Amino acid sequence: MKITKLSIAVLFLTSSATVFYGQEVNDTIKKESKIEGVVIQGSTKKGAESNIISIQKKSVEVIERVGAVQLEKQGVGDVSVAVTKATGAQKQEGSGQIFIRGLGDRNNSTTMNGLPIPSNDPAFKNIDLSIIKTDMIDFVGLEKVYNPKLWGDVSGANVDIVSKVYTGKPYFKVNLGSSLNLNAANKNNYFLQDGPNYFGFKQINKPKNAAIVNQGYAFTTSWNNKEVLNPINSSLGIDFGTNIKIGDSGKLNIFGYAAFDNDYNYTEGIAGGSYDAQSQALRIYDNAEEFEYSTNSTGLLNLNYRINSKNTVNFNTNYIHTTEQKLGNYAGYDRNFNDSDPQQNQYVTQMRRATYKTNDLIINQLRGEHQLTEPLKIFWNVGYNRLDSRRPDRQQNVSVYDKLNNLSTFASSNPGANHRYFDQLVEDDYVGDVHADYQLSEKAKFTVGYNGRFKNSDFRATQYNFRILAPQGSYFLDSNNYDGFFNPGNYQTGAYFSIVTFRGDVKYNPENSLIPQFYQSKLVNNAGYLNFDYKFSEKFTAQLGVRYDQLDQKIDYNTAIFSNGGSINKNYSKILPALNLKYSINDTHNLRFSASKTYTTPLLLETAPYEYEDIDELSYGNIDIYPSDNYNADLKWEWFPKRGEVISVTAFGKYIQNPISRVVVASSANSSSFVNVGDTGKIFGAEMEIRKDLYTSGNSKFYAFVNATYLNTKQDLDTQKVQDENTTVSVNFLKNSDKMQGASDFLGNANLGWEQKWGNNNSMDFVVSYSHIADNIYALGFENRGNLVDKAINTLDAVARFKLANGIGFSLSGKNLLDPEFKRVQDNTNGELTIREYKKGINLGAGVSYEF
């Protein structure tokens, strides 16, 4: 394949801030009775495997981390994959969202350096972790056991991304890489929509209202696809670190990172399936293909100023710009457009859908640590995040092809079948934390703190629907040239099509029709917390804490569901106790017990009454949904055979009051929404983790990193409860109970590595990684329309990395080597019916770096 493009890095550094939460550690035998914690000084690599395990061993709280050093060996490039290397975590196929211990997006939280960060997508609570690059971080912390310093809206786990603070000798490093998705490479003609560019910085704006009023058809991009030459993935990045001495005791550490990468993918198979209770197709596109292209441009600057041994200030800024394109061509049966020929003997429904997403996220953080007196230490941390997320110029065309007469006509029954869609979500998010540690004695420590979050969200959307006016047979339609029909000339005649929104015709009623759908949210979260640590003996330490959360949220809306608009006021107060106990059986064995209460609030998407439409489903928010309360307990045994090794087993349980789930709504449409499905939910599980050197000889080492999780979940399904509590959502459950949405019975990761060193600072790492995710429920069904279930999937990756003493490094990688089939089914009582099926394809890549 001839290469006609070269990746050029988009290099930029903007402004923001970082936090690393430290706790005290005492290395001398004399002070061994003092409350344990961790402080990292000097040039210690916080992301090194041995250091991470050492922190886990000494901490009072349960800590589970995945470090940058190990991630580099495994060739893990983003945080979403990094988190799946931790025990009990799985990544949802098709997104960067993470399920932890069977609990998904709404149940988890994401922080950077201890402060919450917003999602880059209005459809989710948490940021897509795949856009956070592992080169920017020291480690990822997975906090599955609660303590009151954590934000209380979490029942699965909190993912804390700790951005890199430079230590060591000055350096400058350049990374170049390229990879190939075999599905994309083998596609002879690769297409994307018109408008977006290669680097992803071209913004497509909604037509101005004045242009719509004066011109009518005022769209600047084409309906027709554009061909892409050479769909080859590439990446270019730089990072550097240096330090400056200031005065007698001060030091300024500087770390910078900037990178651009892109990614092409192609899949073909089945999409959009939906069946009724009798297993008759409502819709099934059994001939579907999707072209995808994404970009990620990232810049980070971290300034860590150590004023003296008692005072440190840190400033961190992170700018992330991402884009996603997906062009889908779907052919099959859809009852909405052709209800007379489900076997497609004569008629085939054809859909073209092009989606473009852009996200601009700025994360700014400033924090300080100050030892005011010997017993008193103050920590403060403030942040400002801004998100600008857009879906500009989503395009959809639907036509019906007559195979016998070799002609196509528009699906004219629904004006929305052919449309252009624009939306924008802007969020301003102010967050802060301040707390003080007071060492009462060598055995006792007291912590008091405050958290605050003030978040404003403004979402607006306009969909321009193209109502077909021309009678069938009076026009010629070429499904490869929609511009031949939808163009300014045909619009001006008034005979072919009109442009309408859900509020009316843009030509005859522009004052109302061009008012966008919107919802606006104002969230205020104030919290105070107390923690008391006490060391009863050399072996036994206890931590008792409590947190008080006050949440106030107001949502104003005016959407197609409620065209007259309305408001929602949500006010909650939560008291959240937590207990953490640690018993050191001896120098290498720990026994831990934890118990806590937390809560889970529904997402803004799950509350705001707005319809989100995709090829596979349509979902809308429920104004009557409310939070769940969670009661959590963990019992964990840890064994640290030697430095850098750990073996652990954990048993855990969760009792959930009023659990929230995605449900298929009782209607003829393939719609879903979100409700409190019953009174209780229960989760019981066991986890096992092994990080062990298998064989060492001289400069060679073979090691394993293995973890597995077993889950048993159950939640009540109460049709009457849902009917009593909801005004806009109706369900009719066939069962009285079912598994939790998103929970797999079994998860497993196995990593085998070979490390070889020779000469003067030459090294090689070869790692093979295998993952298994068992079946899990995507959405609960109703009556005999069964649950939507994602079937089990197995993945295999292999990476070889070489570092030479002269600063040159290179790597070879193979990702998704098993190329498993992703399959989602509707599990009706009379059998499984496929509604989504495809293979992602194998990815082969190579990279080179130079550090000097």
* Unreliable segments of 5+ consecutive residues: 1-44
CATH topology: Maltoporin, Chain A
Shape: globular
SSE-based structural type: mainly beta
CATH hierarchy, class: Mainly Beta
Strand content: over 45%
Mean pLDDT: 87
Number of helices: 9
Number of strands: 43
Radius of gyration over all CA atoms, rounded: 28 Å
Major sheet description: 22 strands, antiparallel, barrel
Number of domains: 1
- Which architecture name does CATH use? Beta Barrel
CATH superfamily: TonB-dependent receptor, beta-barrel domain
Q: What would you say this structure looks like, in words?
A:
This protein has 852 residues and is mostly beta strands. Helix content is 6%, strand content 55%. The protein contains 9 helices and 43 strands. It has a 22-stranded antiparallel beta barrel. A 5-stranded mixed sheet has the order 1-6-7-4-5. A 4-stranded mixed sheet has the order 26-27-31-30. A hairpin with a 4-residue loop joins strand 16 (376-402) and strand 17. The longest helix is centred in the N-terminal third of the chain and has 10 residues, at 49-58. The chain starts with 48 loop residues before the first helix and ends with a strand. The model is unreliable at 1-44 (pLDDT under 50).
